[in-house]
């Protein structure tokens, strides 16, 4: 199976409601789509969301990295020589893990198709179903409580609340949501780097003293502030999950070795795809540190790749793959089934993606042999 063409396009899918965090507000998913065509007719699919506010990777940056560097590194090569191909993607350009992730997952898709095996089984996985949380955007306390009740009515039993816009309000936000949903719903919170270390400890301990029962806090402090992250981990009763602080496997090793966080959030767009995500999962396993699998605002192609990883790795115990259910429609054929909180991986070969609704895909560029 030889790669004969690299195609880039863009999909645009409206969200059900605007997505608001401490860093940004978004109304649509507008992601770069990668198609790798081969001489057997098999097509591998990949996707990358431009999440400039988190990764720095804009649409132009993702397209440029693939057009100018990555496409040339893989075109004409045999999929069967798989690891060198994955390494060629990682080595083709500095940074831009989102572009690398999109191409990396398309390669896994092809490799699975070549040997007619779903990727999660190729990785040794047993489970076929996952249960995801759903994100509640940051708003005033009453709006967040209303949104939380709607999510529980849709069947979700785990909510991820975005906080950190005006930290003085965060305890009120959580109190309003906890009162609205009762004690049985799991609540995790994501501050998206909004707090100082001392502020984080004060807010978190106040929340726990008030009996608000937080499962974990995601990225309380600035991404680069590992000392601060470690301070919060040591001084708060709430487990701390590193998100923006851990992009690469090297970042993960540093956090594991310094015990700067209790948990790691793996996202394909941060680490550059499945190849590196597997390294993070293995390192975390060695340290006995559980992982969350997360996503950006993504449609189903890239989240589907994360589903395969999560089904394969038991160290991934927390599932935050709500991208597709935040979208108001699904223009992707095949792949995992997202039925509100229940995700079922497909047993099709590779990643199981069959195609993209034509009117949702705008072609941008292609390079052929
Ligand atoms: Mg996060």
Explain what this protein looks like in three dimensions:
The protein is of the alpha/beta class and 369 residues long. It is 38% helix and 26% strand. The chain has helices at residues 59-74, 82-91, 97-114, 119-122, 141-153, 170-181, 197-209, 226-235, 249-258, 268-271, 274-287, 300-312, 323-326, and strands at residues 3-20, 25-38, 43-48, 129-131, 134-136, 158-162, 186-190, 214-218, 240-242, 263-266, 291-294, 316-320, 332-334, 337-339, 342-344, 353-356, 361-368. Strands 5-6-7-8-9-10-11-12 form an 8-stranded parallel beta sheet. The protein has a 4-stranded antiparallel beta sheet with strand order 3-2-1-17. Strands 4-15-14 form a 3-stranded antiparallel beta sheet, covered by helices on one side. Helix 12 links the parallel strand 11 and strand 12. The longest helix is centred in the first third of the chain and has 18 residues, at 97-114. The two termini are 14 Å apart. 51% of the residues are buried. The model has no long low-confidence stretch (mean pLDDT 97). It binds magnesium ion. Residues 190, 192, 218-219, 243 line the site of magnesium ion (MG).
